[in-house]
Amino acid sequence: MNPGSVAVVVVEDIGVPSWDLYELSIPCTVFGKPQPDLADPWYDLRLCSTGEPQQDGSSTGTGLSLRTPYGLDDLVGADTVIVPSVPDPCVDEGQPLPPALITALRQAYDAGARMVSLCTGAFALAEAGLLDGRRATAHWMHTAQLAERYPKVEVDDSVLYVDDGDVLTSAGLTAGLDLCLHLVRRDLGAHVANQLARRMVVPAHRPGGQAQFIDLSVPATDDGSLGPVLDWARTHLDQPLTVEDLARRAAMSPRTLHRRLQAATGTTPLQWLLNQRLARAQNLLESTDLSIEKVGELSGLGTANNLRHHFLKQIGVSPSDYRRAFPRTMPESPLSAGEPQRPRYRSIAAATASGDSSGA
Question: Can you tell me whether residue 170 is helix, strand or coil?
Fold first, then answer.
């Protein structure tokens, strides 16, 4: 089976920032290197610049310029079009994307191309109107901006990627690799995808979603007047706590506490407590060898079964899978009042490499 051509967009107008090279390299690695013993023919990869086709590698702006003979005209006619990312100013400051890119994306879609975005590339697909009425995702740090700027898009910040048939989107960084391997699985079958993942030393399929990488202990904003009661609650998570307990501690009515906490953190008091308990459980799983039962007790989530229930519902993986994904890196007392910042992007390959190995 011929998997067809893959056109990867390179936004050249301000150069390719070095921090965006990771997303750009993912489709190049997956689709650009022939694997004749797995599938022949392999994909036909083309890097398509938004600037003029170049024959040299001169740099522009603060980033890099790639030597490629392909331009936006080459998006039309490709079987798959991938937008790895867009420049930060287009996401953070609302700087317009090149109009020619938006036009080319629409034309490629109308011509029957499968449209794919990695990380912030979703902003380009959304600007082209290709995500209207669809479920989509992006890096969890940018999903709120995506939802606000494009209200017709159903943004899901909890998943690693979304497959909506002819339009697919992924979360940031390594989630782009998850999606690219998923495309190989769709095109060439599980055996080929599993063997390719093994060669890349990554899992063919990771359990859970990007919710497991979000630091639940950090609110969107903070209300200084609530600081003392929130700090007190964090040090008493192992005890039964109610909204009334927090309101009494804050010297306000439960209704006022609810309104103030909703404004300060964007969540209700009960959801805030649950987030804090989950954050404590994550910390204990990462930094101690305590049993699942003890982790549930110290985090205030109760029994091991209750802990598993909330982890699967909120984080997307079981406590045991989470512990394997984030092995202990530093000693800490399980009764520590503080919640140290956790590295959110350690690889989970070692923890989940056996999760989809039937064809390996």
Answer: strand
